[in-house]
Amino acid sequence: MACTLCLVLAGAALLALLLQLLRWLRADGDLTLLWAEWRGKKPENELRGKVVWVTGASSGIGEELTYQLAKIGALLAISARREDELERVKKKCLQISSLGEKDILVLRLDLTDRSSHEAATNSVLKHFGRIDVLVNNGGRSQRSLFVDTNLDVYNAIIELNYLGTISLTKYVLNHMIQRKRGKIVTVSSVMGIMGAPLATGYCASKHALQGFFNSLRPELTDYPDISIIQICPGPVQSKIIQNVFTENLAKSIENAGDQSHKMPTDRCARLTLVSMANDLKEAWISDHPYLSVCYLWQYAPTWAWWLMNRMGKRRIQNFKSGVDADASYSRKKK
To answer: What are the alphabetically sorted keywords of the record (predicted)?
Structure first.
């Protein structure tokens, strides 16, 4: 009898393990995030009525986040450099939601102009009276080899992606400390966890953000209701490739390539909202193989280096041949 019971328990454990493996192979996010999506708090309940300030809101992930937040009923401050594009986004938000004109503040913002960040923060506070959530989404990626790239490009990447982000965070965090609550959400990247060719400066800026916010979090232990949340997307269907840094500041990418094989932007945005609602410290949002590499980089870095060398070689070949760098090993989206 005891032997039979042991066999049943062993079989049940093996089945559970196989189910988890199957779930992981089909995953588009880390397992903690997907569990939160299934059994955790819902963004519709947690974010409705919250004042959310989204930077980089004129395109890509930031734009889609803005639309989904509007549908939920969050009050929005949306920022980017292109005010005309922000007005377009606001117009659509009003069409797809029950928000009114005063529920959405359009605020032009240049992250590299750090002297303007205090005034911008005060403008949001004057309009809404509080900031519940800051979404640091502004930034640019990179497509160039280090040996071909001017150092001015690296300075611009760090100034925008890293220094601009922590500068704005500083002013908003002062307000949240006064209130003893709030969420700082930073859209980093899987490139903040691993390294990849053609993105040396971009990876450096995202690693810097990871290190900064992982260090800031324990500085705020006296404020348990202030959450530091890092979002790490993999390749996503957005306009990020059209706007990348290249070998020099005056040059733009000639051919962005087909982006249809990447994760749909609306899915990335939804998982980002789930992460926000559940106060996840870090969320990996990606299809395989980048999701697999994240796990390898975390638990088996030697294997991750070997795999990235193989993937990186193909990535460079794709780039030089004029197709998207990640096209050859990402799953085609239907």
So the answer is: Oxidoreductase
User: Coil, strand or helix: which one is 138?
Assistant: coil
**Angle CA 254–256–257, to nearest 5:** 120
Task: State pLDDT tens for residues 67-125.
Answer: 999 999 999 999 999 999 999 999 999 999 999 999 999 999 999 999 999 999 999 99
Report CA dihedral (105, 108, 111, 115) to the nearest 10 degrees.
-100
Residue tagged 């993937």 (tokens): 311
Cis peptide before 301 (omega within 30 of 0): no
Query: What does residue 61 show for φ and ψ, rounded to 5 degrees?
Result: -60, -40
| Nearest partner of 206 among 237, 246, 166, 176, judged by Cα | 166
Residue 79 is classified by DSSP as: E
Q: What is the pLDDT of residues 123-134, one digit of tens each?
A: 999 999 999 999
The catalytic residue positions are: 202
Q: Residue 228: in which H helix or E strand, if any?
A: strand 226-233
Minimal CA–CA distance to 229: which of 187, 271, 192, 194? 187
The length of the chain, given as a count of residues: 334
Residue 279 class from Cβ within 10 Å (0-12 exposed, 13-18 middle, 19+ buried)?
middle
178: helix, strand or coil: helix
Contact 282, 228 (CB under 8 A): no
* SS3 track for 103-122: HEEEEECCCCCHHHHHHHHH
Burial of 14 (0-12, 13-18, 19+ CB in 10 A): exposed
Give the pair of three-digit tokens for residue 274. 């789930």
pLDDT tens sequence across 316-326: 998 888 888 78
Cα–Cα distances in angstroms (integers) from residue 331 to residues 257, 311, 314, in the given order: 15, 14, 16
